[in-house]
Amino acid sequence: MAAPDVVVTGIGAFSPLGTNAQESWTNLLAGDSGARTLPYPWAEELELPVRFAAIAKVDPTEVLDRIEAKRLDRGAQLALLAARDAWADAGSPEVDPTRLGVDWATGIGGVWTLLSAWDTLKEKGPRRVPPMTVPMLMPNAAAAAIEMEFTARAGARTVVSACASSNESIGNALDHLRLGYADVIIAGGTEACVHGLPLAAFAQMQALSKRNDAPQLASRPYDAGRDGFVLGEGAAALILEREDHAKARGARIYARLLGSAVTSDAHHISAPDPSPDGSVPRTMRLALEDAGLSPNEIAHINAHATSTPVGDIAEYKSMRAVFGDHLDEIAVSATKAATGHLLGAAGAIEAVFTVKALQERLAPPTINLTDPDPEIPLDVVTTPRRLPDGEVFAVSNSFGFGGHNAVTVFASA
Asked: What is the DSSP string of 209-227?
């Protein structure tokens, strides 16, 4: 029996650009940046070399019930809000709980809870460590919160594969729907690690931009002056559904999820494999094969493009190896220029933007590209651009520390 087709019927986000998917998309199209100087006293007190990030546009504790927020790490707070946004956007479907699943992701987990509890232990002793510390810090806490919120009993899984995490979770959801494990899956990812320790650690790796005097200009993928990524936080979700189930309930369909692939480099813990014949281009080829498409059919790519000197070039070479001369005809967007790098949530927010691009036939802009790197000759979208009429296919790339690679392929509805 042929595997069922899978469609997107809802999108949600709580990001540096907005408190829901539509606001995030609108501000992305407007060319806004979510990066700003950190409003926290510790950023100055710790004398951090990087004192800015792309934090959530609104503190999630201002939106959640007080008791609810107290029982969740910041990452799970963001996740729950994004999932609620997506669920409502999908029309709050009535689903048999045993046919509703969760495929979620994070790159790091509850780092705020972990480090705060450690401070409490050191300063006040073991009897003052909060009893909910472990349920709050565990990487699957967000998936558990979503599962309980929507009574999802077809499995609640969590992927932890650095910056590829949520794109991988979306691919897992595609597989689980095809295999008949569920009729509807809430898929996505979250991250909330804008904390002194991760900021200091990433800065020590020389991974972060140090443009403290101009945070909104710091994330500049493909620009010759790029000097590192901007750490971001947020969450995003897709409601993925068997097409027959979606049509039976009269759901609005945003786009179709056609294919996905996951590979690993086995090369280096943090550096991308630079080989044009390596795992990164292989991931794209496998995803296209899964989608039943040729490279020449792709019209739009939401690139991983983190704004690091090495990473942007490596991804470009991989795309060139896969798409050849056709790459010159593909509209490439690098939306981390606006959102910063959401790590484990990056693939999810970029999937939301890819879905919106297909729905509205509008590729979003890449801000801050004022001096294109001559070593990366791409057709980068710098102002919102119309995509072709008819059926349109798009790719979303995600690559992470540990050599984790995940690619998804979407089509217009």
From this structure: ---TT-GGGT--TTBTT--
Ramachandran sector of residue 209 (left: φ over 0; alpha: ψ -120 to 50; beta: rest): beta
Tokens of 255: 């786009």
Q: Which residues are catalytic?
A: 163, 304, 341
State the pLDDT at residue 272.
85
| pLDDT, tens digit, 9 for 90 and up, residues 236-284 | 999 999 999 999 999 999 999 999 999 999 999 998 888 878 899 999 9
**DSSP secondary structure letters along 315-348:** HHHHHHHHHGGGGGGSEEE-THHHH-B-GGGHHH
Q: How far apart, in whole angstroms, are the C-alpha atoms of residue 139 and residue 276? A: 33
Secondary structure string (H, E, C) spanning 154-193: CCEEEECCHHHHHHHHHHHHHHHHHCCCCCEEEEEEEECC
pLDDT in tens, 289-331: 999 999 999 999 999 999 999 999 999 999 999 999 999 999 9
How many CA atoms lie less than 13 Å away from 137 in the CB half-sphere?
A: 14
Which run of H or of E encompasses 409?
A: strand 404-412
pLDDT exceeds 90 at position 31: yes
Q: Measured between alpha carbons, how far is 242 from 267 in angstroms, rounded to an integer? A: 37
Distance in angstroms (rounded) separating the CA atoms of residues 234 and 123: 30
Q: What is the pLDDT of residues 53-95, one digit of tens each?
A: 999 999 999 999 999 999 999 999 999 999 999 999 999 999 9
Across 18-138, the runs of DSSP E, i.e. the strands, are 36-37, 52-53, 100-105
**Token digits of residue 378:** 């791409």
353-366 residues labelled b (16+ CB within 10 A) or e (exposed)? bbbbbbbbbbbbbb
